[in-house]
Amino acid sequence: MLEFVESVQAAVAGIRDGSTVMIGGFGNAGQPFELIDALLECGATDLTVVNNNAGQGDQGLAVLIREGRVRKMICSFPRQSDSWHFDARYKAGEIELELVPQGNLAERIRAAGAGIGGFFTPTGYGTMLAEGKETRILDGRGQVFETPLHADVALIKAHVADGKGNLVYRKTARNFGPIMAAAAKRTIVQVSELVPTGALDPENIVTPGIYVNTVVRIAGSTSGAGNTGRTETTAATGKVA
Amino acid sequence: MLEFVESVQAAVAGIRDGSTVMIGGFGNAGQPFELIDALLECGATDLTVVNNNAGQGDQGLAVLIREGRVRKMICSFPRQSDSWHFDARYKAGEIELELVPQGNLAERIRAAGAGIGGFFTPTGYGTMLAEGKETRILDGRGQVFETPLHADVALIKAHVADGKGNLVYRKTARNFGPIMAAAAKRTIVQVSELVPTGALDPENIVTPGIYVNTVVRIAGSTSGAGNTGRTETTAATGKVA
Amino acid sequence: MSLTGTSIQTSDTALGRDELARLVARDIAPGSFVNLGIGQPTLVSNYLTEEQNITLHTENGMLGMGPAAEGDQIDGDLINAGKIPVTELPGASYFHHADSFAIMRGGHLDICVLGAFQVSATGDLANWHTGAPDAIPAVGGAMDLATGAKDVFVMMTLLTRDGASKIVQSCSYPLTGVGCVTRVYTDKGVFLIGPDGVQVRETFGCTLQELQELLPVPLSPASAVAL
Amino acid sequence: MSLTGTSIQTSDTALGRDELARLVARDIAPGSFVNLGIGQPTLVSNYLTEEQNITLHTENGMLGMGPAAEGDQIDGDLINAGKIPVTELPGASYFHHADSFAIMRGGHLDICVLGAFQVSATGDLANWHTGAPDAIPAVGGAMDLATGAKDVFVMMTLLTRDGASKIVQSCSYPLTGVGCVTRVYTDKGVFLIGPDGVQVRETFGCTLQELQELLPVPLSPASAVAL
């Protein structure tokens, strides 16, 4: 059942210790900071967190990691110039890491929402990230078997919700939101704006309300504006994302 | 390279005998009738056609089948009250049929466009449509291995294209268009309207121009209006689509 | 288990199609997302109330489907899975076929209501193919719905024209899905299918014992908790 | 094969990063869809001309990416894969992460340009992990790009700081992708990788023979047809 709640505390109520939690966002764009803060406050621990990164700076996911609430990270790009809290926990052997190529991460999340039991992909074939995995030659290419990533809860940020829980996003803040909403048993969304049902054009809805359980409006927030998006620097010349 | 052409004849030029051709549409909604007529006129034969149905009445795909141009149909619902041309060819053993559950059809087309080499799905497990296929228990459920459906050419209908080939659709005429556009080597689109680049909101584009090769505007056509959509009747009490 | 001593007969006569549709509609929980199959299941939409706030899905790419379109409302680009022109309700959304079937296959629909040729005692469904050697098979979205929805309700007459039960020990027709049906609504009774076998929730125009005589599978009255 | 008698030296000095970026930009066919990796490859965008009509993809969900945003243009919701604020060009489109990676993995990008630690004589790419035991690994979208794009161009200095060739017989660093690189742009030359091994298209500030002395893999001048 869809519910609209008045506070982020009410939104995250009931998230249990040991849950698998997907957190939307790529860098700061689409990060549900207020929901993450509420998750921290609510005390849930022993979490498995799915996010593209493993926390940056001293906010959001990074604080969850610093506080020892995260047992395991599933992500594509943990190491960043300001991922010091993850780095420290990882080097101390206090957090587990499942490193997943970003496209496999997205496709595995999508598979969970779409009822796919597993799939073969060329990404990662012949690399150490495919070690121990089933492989097969398909369409003349080496491919690796990957499994769906389900979650108990997804915390995502959208731009606008209507009364049916239909969502639209803003620019590249869309990123993981739509696929995580479909992959989680319970999807909690923070939005900048609520509009009456019927105010969104049915052609333009990105996440239908069927994927949404809880909506909270963050008062005074305006997506994008005032959010300068930090510049990441990295040591390698390799592809960074 | 994207091209805008003046006629449906120019749009379909170069489709070779023996091609696999995806044709969009579900019933009449989204059927690219004018492109199908041009395909008939251009004479290409020995075709494998992917469509949800196998032709209705005496138009479009039904005529291609009547004229013996289709060697094989890959579809979910060939038998309809007015599928007489397919029925006759099929009973005469003159056309091959690969019957695919509609969701597998959609997911196999999507897999081709997304670079997935194959996937497991519960749909069809334990039924005659899974006979001879690899099966596996995943997430506690019996699942069937399905492979991507690629095509040489896709013929689809959209509502509006801009100068970059970005597309939007109208209502349920969207159906197979977006996934077929991604699954074919060459995607040919008929639209009702062309607008300048920048006139479509980037948030609302359904098919990015990267998936589009050829665009032709059908003069005087207006999606939906004057198109009454025929009512299908079927013999079975079972699910029909 | 005794079939007497429990009165679960709730009407004096067998139910007509519309009465049955009303019953199914009443049983759908408020706020549900539902797909109604073609034919008899479509009648259910006539009895859904606004208070129930049910969202209808059609597999050709829409949530929030409204009633059949009439007159000027008819738009060839807005049809349902039966290819009948329909309307759009406030809060509707459109999506492509893979996204639409992801809704079904990903387990997001609360209920689908389907017709059937046969349902087995363990919930196997046969509704797409008679198996006749000269029949042209056509499956559509039946297997995806049967496999994907959280609950699969079947609506059918209990008996064939020849008087044979459509609830069977094991389906003789080709299967649509294995162990997927959770509830069967028929003109003579409502059946719950689960780990305890086939339970009868209510009967129409017959007693449980009379029903048992028509059916080749063992029946028991539904426990109160299952009602 | 003789390495003399063919003059493919096209500049008297090694190329700087910007000159190399200009060269890569010139080699991109009009109308292409391109993903530029972070770091050196990003420079290529400075030299793409309007006439080339190149569409840039960023894997965090956009086609039609424009230059870096400045001042009032900066919008935290509009960033590239390096998390740098960018702008949107007319005809841009946004999509979610699975759709974005479907563009890459489905073979729809014409070219991606990546940095590298090493490239092997058969086109294996190593650019994500040094393999050092205490390094925290991070892969991002590198493997998807390497495996998915029709052509994978690498931009790098030919030699490490220690003077070792980054074009190697077999990569010692962990692989990003197998046999995926088709072209390598370096400060000292442009290399084509294909069924005929490593061919040199042009050299900068050295002869082919001098280049061969730096590299542990056999080189041959590119045939005219491959230019």
Secondary-structure topology with pairs:
The complex is a heterotetramer, with two copies of chain A (about 240 residues) and two copies of chain C (about 230 residues).
Chain A: E1 3-5, H1 8-12, E2 20-23, H2 33-42, E3 47-50, H3 61-66, E4 70-75, H4 84-91, E5 96-99, H5 102-114, E6 118-121, E7 135-138, E8 141-146, E9 151-161, E10 167-168, H6 177-183, E11 184-194, E12 214-217
Parallel strand pairs in A: 1-12, 2-3, 2-9, 3-4, 4-5, 9-11, 11-12
Antiparallel strand pairs in A: 6-8, 7-8, 9-10
Helix pairs in contact in A: 5-6
Chain C: E1 9-11, H1 17-27, E2 33-36, E3 55-58, E4 62-68, E5 86-94, H2 97-105, E6 111-114, E7 118-120, E8 125-126, H3 142-148, E9 151-156, E10 167-168, E11 181-186, E12 189-194, E13 197-204, H4 208-214, E14 219-221
Parallel strand pairs in C: 1-13, 2-3, 2-6, 6-9, 7-10, 9-11, 13-14
Antiparallel strand pairs in C: 3-4, 4-5, 7-8, 11-12, 12-13
